[in-house]
Amino acid sequence: MTAGGSAAAAQGGAAAAPAGPIEVARTALAHAWAMLFLVVLLPVGLLCFPFDPRQRMHDRLSVVWAAGALWLVGVRVEAEGAEHVRPGERYVIAANHQSTLDILALLVVLQARAPFRFLAKRALFRVPVLGWGMRLYGHTPVDRGRARGAVADLGAAQRNLMRRWSTVFFPEGTRSATGRLLPFRPGAFRVAAAAGARV
To answer: Nucleotidyltransferase among the record's keywords (predicted)?
Structure first.
C-alpha cells in the first residue's frame, strides 16, 4: 500500500522540506474536518447502537472521514493485494507506522472489506472526544510501559477479534521517524495464533 501526493505529508520524517502555505492550509482543513467528523460520529454511534450492534454505520462513516482527510491534504492511496482480503473473515492486520496517514490509508483500503478496530496507545483514550469515540467503537487501549498491563490488553484484543472485528496492530510499537522498519514485537502474532486468525 503506497500513498502519493505531498512528499512532506507522506514521509512525516525529520528530513521533509518545510511546508508551504498551501500545505499548511490543507493540513489545517484536514484537522478541522477530522474534529468535526468526530463530533458527528459520537452521537451517531450512540443513536445507532440499539439498531446497529455490528456498527456498520460507523464503519461506513469512518471510510468517508478518512477519504475526506486524505483528499484535503492531497494524498492519493494506491493499494496492491487488497483483493486477497476475504469479506467476512477476521484478520490480524500488521502495519508499519510512519505517520497519521497510515491510519487513514488503512481505513480507506480495508475497513469496507474486513471491518477492523485498532490496538492503540492508552494515551489516545484520554483525549476528549477522540478517546470517548475510540472506547465507544471498540478500539483497544494498550499500556506499552507495563508488561503485565500489555498482556491483559492483548487478551482484550483477542476477545475483540474472536467476537466480531479484525484488529490492526502496529507491531513496531511506535512510529518510525526514519521510515525504516523497527524490530517487530510479538504481540500481534500471538493474538493471531490464539484466535486462529489470518495475518
So the answer is: no
Q: How many angstroms separate the CA atoms of 125 and 134, rounded?
A: 7
In a domain, 70, yes or no: yes
Indicate the number of domains in the chain.
1
Give the model's pLDDT for residue 108.
94
The list of the chain residues with pLDDT below 70 reads 1-19, 144-163, 173-199
The residue with cell 510501559 is 145
pLDDT at 15: 46
Residues β-bridged to residue 142: 121
Q: Is there a domain that residue 5 lies in?
A: no
SS3 readout for the chain? CEEECCHHHHHCCCCCCCCCHHHHHHHHHHHHHHHHHHHHHHHHHHHHCCCCCCCHHHHHHHHHHHHHHHHHCCCEEECCCHHHCCCCCCEEEECCCCCCHHHHHHHHHHCCCCCEEEEEEHHHHHCCCHHHHHHHCCCEEECCCCHHHHHHHHHHHHHHHHHCCEEEECCCCCCCCCCCCCCCCCHHHHHHHHHCCEC
A 10 A CB-CB count for 185 gives: 16
Say how far apart CA 89 and CA 71 lie, in whole Å. Answer: 29
Torsion of CA 44, 154, 115, 181, to 10 degrees: 120
